[in-house]
Design goal:
The structure holds 2 protein chains of 2 kinds. By secondary structure, chain A is mostly helical. Chain A is built from 14 helices and 2 strands. Chain A has a single domain, classed as ABC transporter involved in vitamin B12 uptake, BtuC. Chain A has a two-stranded antiparallel sheet with strand order 1-2. In chain A, a hairpin with a 2-residue loop joins strand 1 and strand 2. Chain A starts with 5 loop residues before the first helix and ends with a helix. Chain B is an alpha/beta fold. Classes of the chains: A mainly alpha, B alpha/beta.
C-alpha cells in the first residue's frame, strides 16, 4: 500500500516544472530570428541582475516583446484548459468531457464576441462575458444530457456537439452580418490563436488562473470519491452539491479565461488529463497540478511547432492541438465502447 | 415498543440476550413518501415502521420488489429525513448528524457503481477513511493500518494490489465491504449484497457478516431476498409489503406460511428446524 504523499506530488510537479522550463527555453530559441541557448541564459541573467541596457535592442524586442509574452499566454491558456477539462470530467463523470467537445468553448467564444460588439473598450468585459457564456453553456448541456433524471454519457456528448454547432452558427451569423470587422482575424482567433495580446493587465489573468486551479484543487479529495459514484461519495461524507458548484464555477471561469485570450483551442482539456492519468494515476490531488503544468507544456510546444513548421506562415495553435487531439478522442471513445 | 416486538423479546432467546446489551438503532414510526419520476404514477409511500436493533445484532429487511426496502435503507443511512417519526443511532437522531460524523458511524454498502478510471483495491479501501480527515488530506499511517485491517477482516489481503475492474463478483463484494469497514462504523447497512453471488458466495458473505457482528460490536442490517439465509443468520426480521411494515420479530415469529404466501405471491411451506430457525420450501404445483 503506497498512498499518495505530498512529497510525491511535489517531486512530480517539480519534474514537470523542469520540462516546462526546457520547453520555454527551446520555444524562445525557435523562430525567424535565431537565438542560441547561451544567449537566452545570458540575457535572462542580465535582466535578473538589472543590467538591461547590456542587451541589444532587437534582441530585446524579439525575446521580451514578441516571444516571451506569447509563451506566457500559452502557459496561461494551456493550464486553464487542461484543469477545466479534468474538472469537467469529474463533474460530469465522463472521461470524454472537455471544454471544446462539450461546446463550452463555443459558448465562451460567443460571450466574448458579444462583448467585443457591445462594449469593445471595457477592460475585463471580454473575460466576464466569456465566463458567462461558458457557465450558461455547461448548464444547458448538463440539463440536455440528462435522460430519465440520470446523466447519460452518450446523451451528454451529443448535447455538447449540438450546443457547439448551434453556437458556432450564431457566431458565424454575427460575424457575417457585422461586415466592418476583421473577419479573417476573427476566424483565426476562433481556431485558437496566441497572437493577440490581452488588453488588461496580465497580473489579473494569472490571479484568476491561480484562483480557478486552486479552487478545483481544494476539492480534489472529494472529486476522487465522486468519480466512484455520487451516491457513494455522499455516504462517505462528501458534500457533493458544494463540490459540484465549486468545480462548475471554477472550470467555467478557467474556460472563459482561456477562450477570451486565445479563442477555442480544442482537445487540450481532454488530451492532457488523460496523458497525466496514464503516467501518474487518476488521483486528483496529483492530477490537478500535473494537468495544469502538462497543459502549459503542451500549448508551449504546440505553439512553437505551429509558428515554425511552415514558417514564415503561422498556423493557429488550435489546428495543431486538433490534429493530435481528434485521433486521441476517437481512440479513447473506442476503448470505452469496447 | 410495538406489540409484535414485545412478543419477540419474550419469545426469542436470541433477542432476550440482545436486550441486555446496549440499544444501537431505534426506529420509531418512521415514514416516507416521494413522487415517482413518471407524473402519472402514484407517489410511493412507506408507512410508519418501528423496530430496534442492538449491538452484535444482525437484522434482515425482507419483502418483494417495490415493498419499500431500499427506501427504508435510505432513511436509516440518513440520506433522507423521515416525514414523520424518528430514527436514532446511539440515542442521536440520524438526520441531525453532520455528513462526516454520519459517515463515521454508518456505512452503506450498495450495489457497486461503474468506476470511471482504473483504481487499485487498496486505493478503493482507503476511500473509507475519508470521513476521518480534513479537506485535501493525504492518508496517514493509521489510515493504512485501518484499511489493511479491513481487508484482513474480509479475507481480501491478497487482493490489495489488484485492479478493481479485474476482480470477480465475490471478490469485488468483499472489497466493497472492506471499504465500509474502513469507515469503522457502528451501523453497517447492506443493500442486496448477495445479488450477484452464487450460493457458495452468498453463504460465505453472510457467515462473514455474522462473524463481524458477533466479534466487533457492529449492528448489521441487510436488505435481501434470501429468505432461508436471513432465517439462518439473522436475529431479527423486518417484513415489508407494499410500503407497509407488516411484522417485526425473530425468524420464527415472522415466517408464517400464510403471511409469506400472501406477501411473496408464491406457494410456500415453512418448516421449523431444531434450534428455532425456520426454513422456507417452495411447494410443488398444486
Amino acid at each position: 500500500m503506497r498512498p499518495l504523499t505530498p512529497r510525491r506530488v511535489a517531486w512530480i510537479c517539480a519534474a514537470l516544472g523542469g520540462v516546462l522550463f526546457a520547453a520555454v527555453v527551446i520555444s524562445l530559441r525557435m523562430g525567424a530570428y535565431p537565438i542560441s541557448v547561451s544567449e537566452i541564459v545570458m540575457t535572462l541573467f542580465n535582466r535578473a541582475i538589472g543590467h538591461q541596457n547590456e542587451i541589444p535592442a532587437d534582441f530585446w524586442n524579439v525575446v521580451y516583446e514578441i516571444r516571451l509574452p506569447r509563451i506566457a499566454l500559452g502557459i496561461l491558456v494551456g493550464a486553464s484548459l487542461s484543469t477545466a477539462g479534468a474538472g469537467f470530467q469529474a463533474l460530469l463523470r465522463n472521461p470524454l468531457a472537455d471544454p471544446y467537445v462539450l461546446g463550452v468553448s463555443s459558448g465562451a467564444a460567443l460571450g466574448a464576441i458579444i462583448s467585443l460588439i457591445a462594449a469593445p473598450h471595457t477592460p475585463g468585459a471580454i473575460q466576464a462575458a466569456a465566463f458567462a457564456g461558458a457557465a450558461a453553456t455547461i448548464a444547458a448541456v448538463y440539463f440536455l444530457g440528462r435522460r430519465g433524471g440520470q446523466l447519460d454519457s452518450a446523451t451528454l456528448l451529443l448535447a455538447g456537439i449540438v450546443a457547439a454547432s448551434f453556437l458556432s452558427a450564431v457566431i458565424m451569423f454575427l460575424m457575417t452580418t457585422l461586415s466592418g470587422r476583421d473577419l479573417r482575424g476573427m476566424a483565426f482567433w476562433l481556431m485558437g490563436d496566441l497572437t493577440s495580446q490581452p488588453s488588461i493587465n496580465s497580473g489579473w489573468l494569472y490571479l484568476l488562473l491561480v484562483i480557478g486551479v486552486g479552487s478545483i484543487y481544494t476539492t480534489s479529495s472529494d472529486l476522487n470519491l465522486i468519480l466512484t459514484g455520487e451516491q457513494e461519495a455522499r455516504h462517505l461524507g462528501v458534500n457533493v452539491n458544494r463540490v459540484k458548484l465549486v468545480v462548475y464555477v471554477a472550470a467555467s471561469m478557467l474556460t472563459g479565461l482561456a477562450v477570451s485570450l486565445s479563442g477555442a483551442i480544442g482537445y487540450v482539456g481532454l488530451l492532457v488529463p488523460h496523458l497525466m492519468r496514464m503516467m501518474f494515476g487518476s488521483d486528483y490531488r496529483l492530477l490537478i497540478p500535473a494537468s495544469a503544468l502538462g497543459g502549459a507544456i503542451l500549448i508551449v510546444v504546440a505553439d512553437t511547432v505551429a509558428r515554425t513548421v511552415v514558417a514564415p506562415t503561422e498556423l493557429p495553435v488550435g489546428a495543431m492541438t486538433a490534429l493530435v487531439g481528434a485521433p486521441v478522442f476517437i481512440y479513447l471513445m473506442r476503448r470505452r465502447v469496447r | 415498543m410495538s406489540a409484535p416486538e414485545e412478543r419477540a423479546s419474550i419469545a426469542s432467546p436470541a433477542v432476550a440476550i440482545a436486550a441486555t446489551q446496549a440499544l444501537r438503532l431505534k426506529v420509531e414510526q418512521a415514514s416516507y413518501a416521494y413522487a415517482a419520476a413518471d407524473r402519472s404514477a402514484p407517489k410511493f409511500t412507506l408507512g410508519p415502521a418501528s423496530f430496534e436493533a442492538q449491538q452484535h445484532e444482525m437484522v434482515a429487511i425482507l419483502g418483494p420488489n417495490a415493498s419499500g426496502k431500499s427506501t427504508l435503507l435510505t432513511l436509516l443511512a440518513g440520506l433522507n429525513k423521515p416525514l414523520s417519526g424518528r430514527i436514532e443511532l446511539d440515542g442521536i437522531e440520524v438526520s441531525q448528524l453532520d455528513l462526516r460524523t454520519r459517515a463515521q458511524r454508518i456505512a452503506l454498502v450498495q450495489q457497486e457503481s461503474e468506476l470511471l478510471f482504473p483504481l487499485r483495491v487498496w486505493e478503493y479501501v482507503l476511500q473509507g477513511r475519508y470521513p476521518y480527515g480534513r479537506r485535501l488530506r493525504f492518508e496517514s499511517e493509521e489510515d493504512c493500518l485501518f484499511a489493511g485491517n479491513a481487508l484482513a477482516q474480509v479475507g481480501a489481503e491478497a487482493l490489495r494490489d489488484r485492479w478493481m475492474d479485474q476482480l470477480s463478483g465475490g471478490e469485488k463484494q468483499r472489497v466493497i465491504l472492506a471499504r465500509a469497514l474502513a469507515q469503522r462504523p457502528s451501523l453497517l447497512l447492506l443493500d442486496e449484497p448477495t445479488q450477484h453471488l452464487d450460493i457458495g458466495g452468498k453463504v460465505e458473505l453472510l457467515r462473514r457478516l455474522r462473524r463481524l457482528a458477533d466479534t466487533n460490536r457492529y449492528t448489521v442490517l441487510v436488505v435481501t431476498h434470501e429468505l432461508d439465509l436471513a432465517s439462518e443468520f439473522c436475529d431479527r426480521i423486518v417484513l415489508l409489503h407494499k410500503g407497509k411494515c407488516l411484522r417485526v420479530g425473530t425468524p420464527a415469529e415472522v415466517y408464517d406460511r400464510e403471511l409469506l404466501e400472501e406477501v411473496f405471491q408464491a406457494p410456500l411451506e415453512v418448516e421449523m428446524r431444531p434450534g428455532g430457525r425456520p426454513r422456507v420450501i417452495l411447494r410443488g404445483n398444486q
